[in-house]
Amino acid sequence: MKHTLMKANTKKHTSGELAEALVYPVTLTPAQKKEAAGQLAAARKKAQEKMNDKDKLALQLLQLKFQVQDYIESKKYDIEKHFGYFLKQYIEILELKRKAFAEDISIDETMLSQLINMHRTPPDYISIRLELHSNNIIPADYWFKLIEKQKEHKIKTDQTLRDKEKKFVHKTAIGL
Amino acid sequence: MATRRQRPVIVNIAEDEDFKVLSEKRYSFNWKSFKKTTTVYKLRIEKENDILGVMGIVDIPAEKRVEIKLLATSIENIGSNKVYDRVAGCLIVYACRIAITNYGMDACISLVPKTQLIKHYMQKYHMLNAGRQLFLEGHALFLLMREYIE
């Protein structure tokens, strides 16, 4: 049946057009599978050996970008995954000392520590500097949304603030 | 002719309801039969429901690899008169994204190609030849990502 489909498609379309639209399911025999696995392992080893530091770094930064993206797009809040957590990951990927990284983005080391440990709310310009530092791989709005997600969680769940503010609201809309 | 206008797309896991519309006539394969053996993803334009492409993948953590078992664009997106270009490319890049998110610099995607299509996959998607399989890893993987993502 699969071969019939391939033949039918080949009549209508060129192989280039098919490659731009389809990956046909292919079933290999156990022997073919074993051969394919060996070939792939050898070819991957060669590709890994050829990989330079720039490629490695770019892929690690993309990994961080996607992890941030997945987190900001998910509805779940994770107390561990704040701005500082991802900033720390970023610096570790670059294998930079905190002092050197702080100099790279023109802030002092104390401020960097405060940002990593979330002892200070990151100002907007930090998100922009991080975007520029990553060669636009991780956009400023990703960093910004991490801060927003934390703020959103706080405003939704902060009972102490609610108790404190209650005395300032003298009337409610529905009056219940 | 394919449109030149870029449209933002969304890729999600196909749900049970989707398999009702994933007919062999429009999407080339019997997708229901791959529901148990692969994770099936669908591609659609943001805020629209029509599925433009489908892909079945298998994640193999032990090898830090994602294998594309099958992929199909909807029938009107095949050939010289297709409505949208790069539908299959976007799905392949999504498989790359899954691999990179899970495995970082060790990420790899692979597929077993039909012989006639090998050179086209290599030209179109920078795929590397590993005999029976084609794959993307390292520099080639990053090249394709750079072409497709902002």
Characterise the protein shown here.
The complex is a heterodimer of chains A (176) and B (150). Chain A has 176 residues and is mainly α. Helices cover 69% and strands 1% of the residues of chain A. Chain A has helices at 2-12, 15-19, 30-50, 53-73, 83-94, 98-104, 109-116, 124-133, 140-157, 159-166; one strand at 22-23. In chain A, helix 4 runs antiparallel to helix 5 (83-94), helix 4 packs parallel to helix 9 (140-157) and helix 8 (124-133) runs antiparallel to helix 9 (140-157). Chain A starts with a helix and ends in a 10-residue tail after the last helix. The longest helix of chain B has 17 residues, at 87-103. Helices cover 31% and strands 29% of the residues of chain B. A 7-stranded mixed β-sheet of chain B has the order 1-2-3-4-5-7-6. Chain B has 150 residues and is of the alpha+beta class. Chain B has helices spanning 16-21, 24-27, 87-103, 118-125, 138-148, and strands at residues 9-13, 39-45, 51-60, 65-73, 108-111, 128-130, 133-137. In chain B, a hairpin with a 4-residue loop joins strand 3 and strand 4. Strand 1 of chain A pairs antiparallel with strand 4 of chain B.
